Amino acid sequence: EQDIDVGGLSYTIIGLRKYTEYSFRVVAYNKHGPGVSTQDVVIRTLSDVPSAAPQNLTLEVQNSKSIVMHWQPPPTGTHNGQITGYKIRYRKVIRKSDVTEIIVGTQLSQLIEALERGTEYSFRVAALTINGTGIATDWISAETFESDLDETRVPEVPS
Predict the structure, then answer these.
(1) CA 124 to CA 143: how far, in whole Å?
(2) Does pLDDT of 96 surpass 80?
(3) Which domains does the chain have, with CATH numbers?
(4) Cβ pair 50, 73 in contact under 8 A
(5) Distance, CA of 1 to CA of 7 (rounded, Å)
(6) β-bridge pairing 33-34 and 67-72
(7) Which partner for 60 in 22, 68, 121, 134 could form a disulfide, CB atoms 3.0-4.6 Å apart?
């Protein structure tokens, strides 16, 4: 709690944190001392884009054509609003090819399919609020398998 002496009928409070709830009340003073306090007014400051990237991005190669991405939300206190989803960007590493961009919900993993076999891809993720896209993770890379294991055949008996 903080008391501020104001000489007029309005006051601008600066330095408040984004998307944070604050409670205010006013007490009039005169030569006889303080009057009765107003009821508390609770206000939330406006939201903004996240000010930090998601954490702990990892890649898990599933097979020759798909990779699963896993991540954690940005650190607490950097969301600056309610996280509404995540923006994923990925591309082939070779020749800095075109970037594919997808937006997913609030889940913390995503299967990326229809990739080319034996190809290295780079991935990054950024959190979203209603205000837009926050800071993205650094690019990290993984390579799809050249071929998939065929578990429908029984290997021959060694001689």
Answers:
(1) 15
(2) no
(3) 58-144 (2.60.40.10)
(4) no
(5) 20
(6) unpaired
(7) 68
Query: What single-letter amino acid sits at 30?
Result: N
Question: Token pair of 99, please?
Answer: 């970037």
Helix intervals (H) in 45-135:
none
For residue 31, what is the DSSP state? T
Tens digits of residue pLDDT in 27-69: 999 999 999 999 999 999 999 999 999 999 999 999 999 999 9
Question: How far is the C-alpha of 67 from the C-alpha of 60, rounded, in Å?
Answer: 6
Distance CA 126, CA 87 (A): 5
Instruction: Report the C-alpha gap between 114 and 67 in whole angstroms.
Output: 9
Cβ atoms 90, 103 nearer than 8 A: no
Q: Which residues pair with residue 109 across a beta bridge?
A: 70
Which pTM value belongs to this model? 0.84
